[in-house]
Amino acid sequence: MTTTRTLRFELTDQELALLPDADDIAFYAEHGWYLTKKLFTDQEVDRLAAASADYYAGARSRVLPVLPPRLAAWRPSDGPVQRHNDYVHYESDPIAKVLCKPLLGAVAALLAGVDEIRVFQSTLILKPAVVGEPSNIVPWHFDKHYWSTSTSERMLTAFVPFHDCDEEMGTLTVVDGSHRWRETGRQDSMTRHFADRDRADLERVLAENAAYNGAVIRKVPLVIPKGHLSFHHCRTYHGSGPNRSDRPRRAVSFHLQDGANEYRDFALSDGSPAAYNHDVLVRRLPDGRPDYADPAYCPVLWQGAVHRG
Ligand SMILES: O=C(O)CCC(=O)C(=O)O
User: Fold this and answer.
1) Domain that holds residue 75
2) Residue 2's pLDDT band (boundaries 50, 70, 90)?
3) Which atom of ligand 1 is nearest to the CA of 249?
4) Which residues line ligand 1 (CB under 6 A)?
């Protein structure tokens, strides 16, 4: 069974005051990241944390009808490693109910300069408070590499922690302005998820690309208070360090697409087609391509011009 969530695309006066202003939008365009105001109340964040605990304990509103080839799906039997679980907006209504907030979509629409924002993917993440756990380190990468079958260059990610999130917890760290870099020779290996890559190699790729652009690498750890979130552009290099605190670092990486995004054929260097997990799940367009606007998996989060009041 699939359900389609109906959202009203209206903001209250209180919410209008939380939108980015023209300077914030210019900042995002220049730097490739942006730290929002407090978009979620403490109660909403606590509901998200509780729903994610239920999810880890096995609660599901529905399950994926097929398991895509590169699905991140941590299970308790995987043990105290970094947890990644994709499609939580699909599998958990209690998570989706909080996460799919029109205000979040409106902020994304303003930053991306578009009139429509749809969900692309949501990944529930937990970095255990385990000293020296190697999987807690997220090596440098940018998300567009995983989204070669998407036409859009405006996709972006909201990083939504469930608590104050700082460097000690291994918060998200972005490379300032790197979304504007030109890329040195593209390698197919970049389309592989960072968890399957050699960390030193990704460090080398970052240094090589910075040098190619005559850029200095400025790493900015995003200190995010509870209820606030960060956005990063799909070409902004990012990663994160170990969790040195005594609490798990818990968050959702909420990946978003603009209304114009659609599937395109993308050939890897050996001629084989690149794929994204959606391709075995979403409905098909009349011409046979996967439909990245299938409301069951990619619901609309915001539609219409955003008027700041
Ligand atoms: O969990 C992290 O620190 C990194 C998450 C990430 O790569 C993303 O939000 O795109």
Assistant:
1) 26-303
2) very low
3) 1
4) 125, 138, 143, 157, 159, 172, 238, 240, 253
Asked, for residue 21, whether it belongs to a domain, the answer is no
CA trace torsion 206, 209, 213, 218 (10° rounding): 0
Decide if 181 is inside a domain. yes
Residue with the larger pLDDT of the pair 73 and 268: 73
Distance CA 284, CA 101 (A): 27
Q: Are 118 and 197 in contact (CB under 8 A)?
A: no
**Which mutation among 253, 255, 257 tests ligand 1's pocket best, with the greatest number of atoms within 8 A of CB?**
253
Q: What is the number of structural domains in the chain? A: 1
In ligand 1, the atom with minimum distance to the C-alpha of 251 is 1
Residue 176 forms part of a structural domain? yes
Distance 123 CA to ligand 1 centre (A): 9
Summarised one tens digit per residue, pLDDT across range 87-103 is 999 999 999 999 999 99
Residue 1 has pLDDT above 60, yes or no: no
Question: Would you state the pLDDT for residue 71?
Answer: 97
CA atoms within a 13 Å half-sphere pointing along the CA-CB vector of 121? 23
Asked, for residue 18, whether it belongs to a domain, the answer is no
Helices (H), 119-218: 199-212
pLDDT at residue 7 tops 70: no
C-alpha of residue 205 to centroid of ligand 1, in Å: 18
Distance between Cα 207 and ligand 1 center (Å) = 19
CATH number, position 255: 2.60.120.620
On the question of pLDDT at 257 being above 60, the answer is yes
How far, in Å, CA of 298 to CA of 88, rounded? 12
Instruction: Tell me which residue of 147, 145, 126, 122 sits closest to 194, measured CA to CA.
Output: 145
Whole-model pTM: value is: 0.94
Average pLDDT over residues 261-272: 92
Question: What's the 161 CA to ligand 1 centre distance in angstroms?
Answer: 11
Which percentage of the chain shows pLDDT scores above 70? 93
